[in-house]
Amino acid sequence: MKVVVIGASGNLGSAALRALTADGAARVVGVARRAPSGPSASDLASVEWRQADVSTANLEPVLEGADAVVHLAWKFQPTHRPEETWETNAVGTRRVLEAVARAGVPALVCASSVAAYSPVHHDDPVDETWETDGASAAAYCREKAYVERALDAFACAHPEVRLVRVRPAFVFQRSAASEQRRIFGGPLARPALLDRRRIPVVPVPAGLRMQAVHAGDVGRALATAATTEVSGAFNLAGAGVIGRDEIGELMGARTVEVPPNFVRHGLDTAWHARLAQVPGSLLDAVMQLPLMSTARAESELGWRPRHSAMDALEAVISGIPEKAGSELPPLRP
C-alpha cells in the first residue's frame, strides 16, 4: 500500500509518518515544502521524500499510484499577512483536492481542527454534526472553515473517493516544542524566559477551558483512517479538560484570573505593534471553542488516546526551555 503524506515534516506530519511506518506495511512518501536534506532518523528512515509547495507545485505526479493521501500541509504564520497563509491553506488545499481527483487516488484523509467549529456557550461535548463556520474571525479559523466547505464540495463531486476529515484539539508533542514556541511566541519568547521554574504567577483568562491531544495519538488516528475503510469526520482529543487549575498544576505556579477582554486588548495591541505573533481574535476562538466528544473515533476507528490532555501540554511546556525538536526542518530547535 502506498500512502502519500502532504505536509509531512511538521508537528502532525511527523507523527503521521511515525505511525504509518511503525509496522513497515505501507510504502510512505513524505511531501514537504522543506524536505530533509540529509538522512532521516531511524524511525523515519524508510520514508521517501519529495519536495513540493502545495500552493505552486504540480502535485499530480507525486500522487500517481497512491492508495491514500493524507493532507496535513498548513501555514500558521505570518498572521500579519493573511493573504500568504490563505494561499497555502485554502488555495493549497483546493489544489491538493484537484490533484487527488486527477490522479485517481481512492482515499483522502484531511486535517481540519476544533477551530473549524462554530462558537458555543456551554460545556456539553459536541459531536461531528456541530456547525463548522469557524470559532472566530481569526484567519486560522476562517481558513479551517473554508477547508470544510471545500471538502463538502469535493465529497459531492467525487463520491468515488473515500473521504476522512479529522478535527483534533490543540496538538502538542515534545519534538514540536521549539516550532510551537516560534509560531506562537516569536523571537521575543526566548526559551529561558518560558521556563516554568522562573514563572511564579500565571494570568489565566476567566472561563478558559480547552482540550488538547498528543501528536502521537493523532498520528495513530491518521494512519488508521488512511489504511482502513472508514469515512466521515472524527473528533480527536485527549482525556480531560484544561482550565485554570490544570494550568496552575502544570506550571507549578499561582494563577490569577483576568478578564478575557483585557487579555484580548493586550494581545491586539502587541500584535499590531509586531510584538506578538497571534492576534486577539485567536483568543476569541480559544474562549468559544466547543468541547468535543470523541465517541465516534473510539467506536469506528478503535481509537483510544494513550496520553491525556495534561500529558500533551506537559510535553510542550517541558520541551520549550530545553529547546526540544527534531531533525525535520520545521521542528529544528
UniProtKB/TrEMBL annotation:
InterPro entries for the chain: Epimerase_deHydtase (IPR001509), NAD(P)-bd_dom_sf (IPR036291), NAD(P)-dependent_oxidoreduct (IPR051783)
GO CC aspect terms: cytoplasm
Top-level division of the source organism's lineage: Bacteria
GO function term, MF aspect, one: aldehyde dehydrogenase (NAD+) activity
Domain NAD-dependent epimerase/dehydratase: 3-236
Pfam family, one: Epimerase
Designated name of the protein: NAD-dependent epimerase
Source taxonomy: Bacteria, Bacillati, Actinomycetota, Actinomycetes, Propionibacteriales
